[in-house]
Design goal:
It is a single chain. This protein is of the alpha/beta class and 455 residues long. It contains 15 helices and 13 strands.
Length: 455
């Protein structure tokens, strides 16, 4: 730990998402989201779990604020639930929803913790999905701008850092191409429409934020898993190039270059939606920072039968029975522990996209944690965090403009299609009693922050 030298103004925080922790799914006027519906569909969530209660954060946020203070966090990244503010996605505002986030923000500032607010972390109001097809319809980007204005006018006197959209690729791919996330669609055309309209929503949201408070700082959080060729063959190298564009540069290139990457755009021209005049200018509006969510790497194989891309991702979700067979370490999600991934991502952004200010807005690991004598000894997570942070530190020393790091996540929570069985938290949550226990990794993270602050 002592070998990692972070400047005193480097921000260390933890992150969560509203749907994954809040519970109180229909309390105080909140409307249903697409995830409320999807999580109640038979067979969609492991073990039939739902997030109706989750971590009960909506009721217990004061206790969780105390945990954040105990961890000595510089900042906390949370998301605002759109249907808690607009139960129908637009129209009538739910003041009780705004009041909750106002209390949360005030509580953070009272404890000297900087709030970073994410406006969309996948819990789209169900009404917008039913009426308009959600983000398949470009009009939803205008409803998002309206929602942005409401939230920023209410919280913007205190919240100075805004993240518009979380992981547009994952929301589009898992929810609209693979069907494993809400709303559960399987359509290549829908995937490209949703990607484009989410990026459009980001650009419009930026304009709204700047119009309300020019001193606010705003950006977007992107998932990025570098894709390596599975072998040294030329066909696998080409497969990895296209997979990288499909998963990673499909968002980065429009945001920073004002165009979709080639040759992906050419190969997918029949599926990419009509781009209206001015769209790319809106999408590529300058942001104040880039959020990056990095966990692992992937590998691509050439497969002749895969339409258009001829590329197949082979490394996600390794079954637990395979974990020990190749000498590599994996998390309980089946993701390879590969710290060089975060270094590669930071260097790519530095060298290929103009070295914008970057926050690692998510990085962390799920392991099979258990409580022993009232404590959680999670040495694997400590090794994971140390390994990845060493690579963040190395990229920073080499000129990458990294401003902060948010651990995913503050506490164990509802892990989307995996339900409540995957534990990412610095804090252990007993879902039956809602007891919280700071894990050894939480105390390790606290000590790292204390060292950085000279304490």
């Amino acid at each position: 730990m002592n070998d990692m030298k972070f400047p005193s103004n480097f921000i260390f925080g933890a992150a969560t998402a509203a749907f994954q922790i809040e519970g109180s799914a229909y309390a105080d006027g909140k409307g249903p989201s697409i995830w409320d519906q999807f999580s109640h569909r038979k067979g969609k969530i492991r073990n039939g779990d739902t997030a109706d209660i989750a971590c009960d954060h909506y009721k217990r946020y004061n206790d969780d604020l105390s945990l954040m203070k105990e961890l000595n966090l510089d900042a906390y990244r949370f998301s605002v639930s759109w249907p808690r503010i607009y139960p129908e996605g637009t129209g009538k505002i739910n003041q009780k929803g705004l009041d909750f986030y106002s209390r949360l923000t005030d509580g953070l500032l009272e404890k000297n913790i900087e709030p970073f607010a994410t406006l969309f972390h996948w819990d789209l109001p169900l009404a917008l999905q039913r009426k308009y097809g959600g983000f398949e319809n470009r009009d939803t980007s205008d409803y998002f701008a309206e929602y942005t204005e409401t939230v920023v006018r209410h919280l913007g006197d205190r919240v100075k850092n805004w993240i518009t959209i979380n992981e547009p690729f994952v929301f589009a791919a898992c929810g609209h191409l693979l069907g494993v996330h809400a709303p559960g669609k399987r359509s290549l055309t829908a995937y490209f429409k949703v990607i484009h309209n989410l990026l459009l929503a980001h650009g419009k949201s930026l304009q709204v934020i700047r119009g309300i408070n020019p001193d606010s700082r705003a950006g977007i959080s992107l998932s990025y898993s570098p894709v390596h060729p599975a072998t040294d063959s030329e066909k696998d190298r080409q497969a990895s190039l296209l997979a990288n564009q499909f998963m990673n540069h499909i968002t980065l290139s429009p945001l920073y270059n004002g165009e979709y990457p080639e040759p992906l755009r050419r190969k997918m021209r029949f599926f990419i939606p009509k781009i209206k005049d001015g769209d790319m200018k809106i999408i590529s509006s300058p942001s104040d920072f880039l959020g990056l969510n990095v966990y692992t790497r992937d590998h691509a194989l050439h497969k002749w039968y895969v339409p258009f891309l001829k590329s197949w991702i082979v490394s996600k979700k390794i079954p637990e029975a395979e974990f020990e067979k190749n000498g590599k370490e994996y998390t309980s999600m089946g993701w390879e522990v590969y710290p060089d991934a975060i270094y590669e991502v930071l260097k790519t952004v530095q060298n290929d996209y103009g070295n914008p200010p970057v926050y690692i807005t998510e990085n962390g690991a799920a392991f099979n944690d258990s409580v022993m004598d009232g404590k959680v000894h999670d040495e694997k997570r400590i090794r994971f965090l140390q390994g990845y942070l060493e690579k963040v530190n190395a990229a920073s020393r080499e000129g990458a403009d990294v401003r902060g790091y948010f651990c995913w996540s503050l506490m164990d929570n509802f892990e989307w299609a995996e339900g409540s069985g995957k534990r990412f938290g610095l804090v252990y949550v007993d879902y039956e009693t809602q007891e919280r226990i700071i894990k050894d990794s939480g105390y390790w993270f606290k000590n790292l922050i204390c060292l950085k602050n000279g304490e």
